[in-house]
């Protein structure tokens, strides 16, 4: 998993240990993500399937794409499709992914890069592996997170952010047992590069066997932990968590994670993504690629799409 790393964790800024008055976040639930297929047939895990949307708020869904070793000719992506009313965050840990949209955004991301697309008032976009990966095959592993927009920002102008792995804030624990990558938001006073409409934080952490991570977290935010690979425990009561499982955390000042003392050879560390944000607490009407506040707004989005208001596929 070659997302951005460093050879010597001891050179990184250290997270502070929880203070005497800091409260750990309890674990409300642990669920296992079902597997399926998306787009033209790439495998995904629906990371938050079965979790109440009120506990996810301001997030809508998250897919783990792969981890899969493609043979030549097998890599697949999506066709051109519309979005309105939310943001998509695509984080690639292995492999390469191309993106284009009808408002001029786009680029190629690989090995720790992130594409942050604000659909806002509406656009068309396409995501696919580059031709070189299609021809050669290879490892592919990534995430796509959908972040809701508040009513006041749903019809904002589309925006595209290309976040390189070298821009991510890198931190470690007091004993240098974990690598914490801050992609967006702030952790312990260290800011990630992603700019968000909805106040939120997104972190990818690698926890070495037997090590523990006590991650400070904004009190007003919810907290969701998803295990990408490996196994360990979460929370003060050490609830087991393993690859493909998500934990919903309760209120508190920080959350605790620990990696099992032994891991599988192909997953040498406990790899987790932790996200949290300030709940929007507005009505939600979600149908396919449109996330609005009412059914009428969703219908209007379909009508706007059909009359070409979202633009046209690049090259069409």
TrEMBL record:
It comes from the Bacteria. It holds the Pfam family Pirin_C. InterPro entries: Pirin, Pirin_C_dom, Pirin_N_dom, RmlC-like_jellyroll, RmlC_Cupin_sf. Keywords: Oxidoreductase. Residues 42-147 form the Pirin N-terminal domain. GO terms for molecular function: quercetin 2,3-dioxygenase activity. Its EC number is 1.13.11.24. Residues 202-311 form the Pirin C-terminal domain. Belongs to the pirin family. This is Quercetin 2,3-dioxygenase. The lineage of its organism: Bacteria, Bacillati, Actinomycetota, Actinomycetes, Propionibacteriales.
């Amino acid at each position: 998993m070659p997302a951005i790393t460093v050879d010597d964790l001891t050179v990184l800024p250290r997270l502070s240990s929880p203070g005497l008055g800091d409260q750990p976040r309890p674990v409300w639930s642990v669920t296992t993500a079902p597997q399926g297929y998306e787009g033209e047939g790439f495998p995904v895990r629906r990371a938050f399937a079965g979790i109440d949307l009120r506990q996810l708020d301001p997030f809508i869904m998250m897919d783990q794409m792969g981890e899969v070793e493609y043979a030549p000719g097998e890599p697949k992506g999506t066709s051109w499709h519309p979005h309105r009313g939310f943001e998509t965050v695509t984080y690639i840990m292995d492999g390469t992914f191309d993106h284009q949209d009808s408002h001029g955004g786009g680029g190629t991301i690989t090995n720790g890069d992130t594409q942050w697309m604000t659909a806002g008032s509406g656009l068309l976009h396409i995501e696919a592996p580059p031709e070189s990966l299609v021809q050669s095959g290879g490892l592919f592993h990534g995430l796509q997170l959908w972040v809701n927009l508040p009513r006041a920002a749903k019809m904002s102008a589309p925006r595209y952010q290309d976040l390189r792995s070298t821009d991510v804030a890198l931190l470690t624990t007091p004993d240098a047992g974990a690598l914490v990558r801050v992609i967006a938001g702030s952790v312990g006073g260290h800011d990630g590069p992603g700019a968000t409409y909805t106040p939120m934080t997104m972190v990818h952490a690698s926890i070495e066997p037997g090590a523990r991570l006590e991650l400070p977290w904004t009190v007003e935010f919810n907290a969701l932990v998803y295990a990408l690979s490996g196994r360990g425990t979460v929370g003060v009561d050490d609830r087991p968590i393993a690859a493909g499982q998500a934990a919903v955390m309760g209120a508190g000042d920080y959350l605790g994670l620990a990696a099992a003392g032994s891991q599988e050879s192909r997953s040498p560390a406990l790899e987790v993504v932790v996200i949290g944000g300030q709940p929007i607490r507005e009505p939600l009407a979600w149908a396919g690629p449109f996330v609005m506040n009412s059914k009428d707004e969703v219908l209007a989005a379909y009508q706007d799409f059909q009359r070409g208001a979202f633009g046209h596929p690049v090259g069409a």
